[in-house]
Amino acid sequence: MVDDDTIRKLAATREWQALGHYQPNRLTSGYKSQADDAGFFLAADGKTSPVAELRATLAAIQAPVTGDDNDHASCEFPARDRWLREQLKMPETEAHCADFQEWASELNTESVALVFAASYLNSPSSMFGHTFLRLDPPSDDSEANLLLANTISYAADAAERDNELTFAYRGIFGGYPGITSVRPYYEMIRLYSDIENRDLWEYQLNLTPDEVDQMLAHAWEIQDRNFDYYFFDENCAYRLLALIDVARPGTHLLDEVSTHAIPSDTVRWVADRELVASVNYRPSAATQVNHALHQLTPENRRLASAIANGYVDTTGPEMAELSAREQANVLDATYDYVRYQSEAEGWPRDYAAPLSHDLLRTRSQIRDQAPLETPPTPSIRDDQGHETFRAGLNRGYSGSRHYTELSLRPAYHDVLDPPEGYRPGAQLQFLRFDSRFYPDKDELQVERIVGVEIRSLTPRNSFFKPLSWQVGFGGRRTETDSGNRVLTPYLEGGAGGSWMLGSQLQAIAVATADLEISSAIRRGYDIAPGADAGLLYQSPGISVMAGGRTRAWIVSSQHRQDEAYVEASLHLGRDYSIRAGVSREHHFDRYQTQWHLGFNAFF
Q: Mind listing the pLDDT tens digit for each residue in 16-54?
């Protein structure tokens, strides 16, 4: 018989609270479990009482086995059972947990890797990247193959009919149940690497065999249990941190989470806790194809494109003019490209299959030529980029007034932030807040509130023709025809193209559309089609964006708004930068110059 004082002491430990997913209430005393499935609790008030749940669990695992052993609490909650018996020095359970043992045996896990899939801006659920756990078989198992290993992942159980906007809304406000599931690794590679073009980083964790067993036991407990999914905090990354906290008590990874849990941040926290033994880079299919094509000369790239599109035969005279080495490279790169287009872009099989066969047949006749080099591992990993929270202090001038501006952005990155560890040309900002103080009138104003701002500038070439696009909404100061600046809700978007002019310089041309809504506008709203064209240069030392934009407001004020701008950021490492910008604007038949200079820090 365990006395009540011991029960309360055990229920107050971080280990038990991790097993029950208990978190302190923010506004009141006590605890509440993040599990939202009644079947996860053995006590009627187990969701809000760690003590009651521990007491009920202790009674249940000591109860005699009646009926099917698999229905016994020791088999339904093997991680709880194991921890309690260790703490109280109790004998092993008499229940024979055949279902759990068979499941664990099929997983055949010796070690665990945390896998990070890079960000994917075309899906709200993956804008910040995604993490999952890979369960690796014993290294001495000759029949083992990492591609056949299983994975543990947590994701929103969204209805297939829900579009991306519905998913974003319901995901933000907890409108989906979150489910922990087990899937083969090759399925994850096909989804993330081959179809969505996302590089994978594999972080081998240094968990001991006992820690791996405890992680699997807890994964069994939460498998198919409902934990409401929240896009910003209780997401894929958050749940995996909870699993690692259970496996290795004392890591307290969840303590790092405040308002949001961004996957790249969570990987950084795991690495900071010295939980990573080694790191492996797995480039996506698109990365491999691009690297292969860039090993060709410009002339040979054009030849590869002509072969892939059916204009030139694999044994045509154009190929005969090349050396054996060049022929092999062109054939290898073209085959990789055709295979990628078949998998990711759905090229017709009756076209791609014969062409692939011709490429392989011709390549097999070229002897003693090594294949193309594989993509090198990036020198900076995604988790080694700048921290995602940014604070900035700026001094500036607008029209005829000087100001001091404070800018706060919880997440994530813009194109002028330090680029290392982030996708070139990608911008994703959430909940940015800018406020200005004008000393001439001691006036404090909210300048801008960014709800969401996304920009995807992916270069086009003869092989890939992605659409560059942007979308954003929030509130911003806009000038009316009377000269007043009012805070106006806005929605903006655009689509166009981007082209590389060098290894770090790209040209951008985007058609845009803006909507502003305010009682200060004559008809209550205004709409403006427009265009934005410019150049973007990104490097570890400095990033620069320069160009011009125009908007034609057509509903209320019927006028043009034109602006030429230059903005640059000098990167002081990856956690600090000095940013400056100047622009010249023509609006309501008035010209004005604006400039700003400031300092940004990333936390």
A: 999 999 999 988 999 999 999 999 999 999 999 999 999
Q: Answer for the pair 243, 215: CB distance below 8 angstroms, yes or no.
A: yes
- Cα 22 to Cα 29: distance, rounded to the nearest angstrom: 13
Q: Which letter, b or e, does each residue of 545-574 get, where b requires 16 or more Cβ atoms within 10 Å of its Cβ?
A: bebebbbebeebbebebebebbbbbebeeb
Counting DSSP H helices and E strands in the chain, the numbers are 16, 22
Asked if 509 contacts 493 with a C-beta cutoff of 8 angstroms, the reply is: no
Structure tokens at 479: 């000038």
Distance (Å, rounded) from C-alpha 260 to C-alpha 238? 9
Per-residue burial over 274-288, b if 16 or more Cβ lie within 10 Å, else e, is ebbeebeebbbbbbb
d(CA 429, CA 21): 30
Strand partners, 525: 517
Largest CA distance in the chain: 89
Residues near 462 by Cβ (< 8 Å), separated by ≥ 6? 301, 302, 305
At 171-209, the pLDDT tens digits run 777 777 888 889 999 999 988 887 778 999 999 999 999
Give the Cα separation of 295 and 446 in Å (integer).
50
Distance CA 398, CA 599 (A): 18
